[in-house]
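ok so dumb question maybe but i'm new to this and my supervisor (M.) told me to 'just get the structure for Tyr recombinase domain-containing protein' and walked off. so i did the thing. is this what she meant?? sequence i used:
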Amino acid sequence: MSKGYVFRSAFAPYILEFLKMKGNLVVNSDVYRHTLQQWDGAMLENGFNELYVTREMVSAWENSLRNICDRTSYTKHTQLIQFLKYMCRLGIECFVPRIPKRPSSMYTPYVFTHEEMSRIMEAIDKSEQKGFRPKSCLICMPCLFRLLYSTGMRISEALNIKNGDVNFQSDLIFLTKTKNGKERIIPMNPELKVVLSQYLKYRDMMPVEGICKPERHLFVSGIGKPFTATTPYTFFKKILRQCGIAHKGKNQGPRVHDLRHTFAVHTLQKMATEGVDLYAGLPVLSVLLGHASVRETEWYLRLTREFYPEVIDIISSTTGGIFPDVDKNNMYYGKGN
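this is what came out, is it supposed to look like this??
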């Protein structure tokens, strides 16, 4: 199925309107379109021509989803449920299935408090190198972790930044190697600009030939070589222990990636307290995070509700039921963002 697919079931006009409404929020609504194409096809194939939804019709759609993993099934069910609830609000009788059990591979992110972030940054700043270790990356850590927290970029994106990608004249950082393959631009706030300038001042003192050339990596070890995400991950676990923040082990977190989640939640909370229109602000945050669609960013609202309930009160007055109702145990695709 493709964008050229023509919806032909009894639900066609409602699907198109739903996708249009989603399109006002979603950068790329293809994820919804594909699921609803499957729904449309299942209705035609099974001869369901009436404008209502029964358990039998949902089962027919589920049977058409062949060879998909539990995580994909979970995603498609949440998307269809949003559409069915939209239909219900229009007065069309619909059976709305329950959300499937969350796949075990899904991860509920850890959101650091503002106080925890202060302790983490203080511990990073006080870190000292013991002994002579020319390959150490400690010089990068204060700047790297502030960059992650203040921009929400992924660790892989940060480690792929080249010197030439940082423009101090326009206060912008250009990300050329991203998860979804799309380049994006990240603004530098004044504090981050100062931190980056200080880091470069001392980094460029290292006796490494060509360390400041545009094509060289921004973050390097003491011998001028780039490093993998394993290095900051190991360092971060040490910092968490120093701060008394329990690390639950592999794939349990808190993780370096949780700084990205923390950035998103703290940004939404700041928007709410400053009176920013979240209906307009959410797509902006989505673009800044590099999400393929606002659907991914929507989940942060569920996460934010646990810490700042007023955010949901503000946005619900304008978005109605556009956002999925998900309990706190089914909150977020941690690895997918």
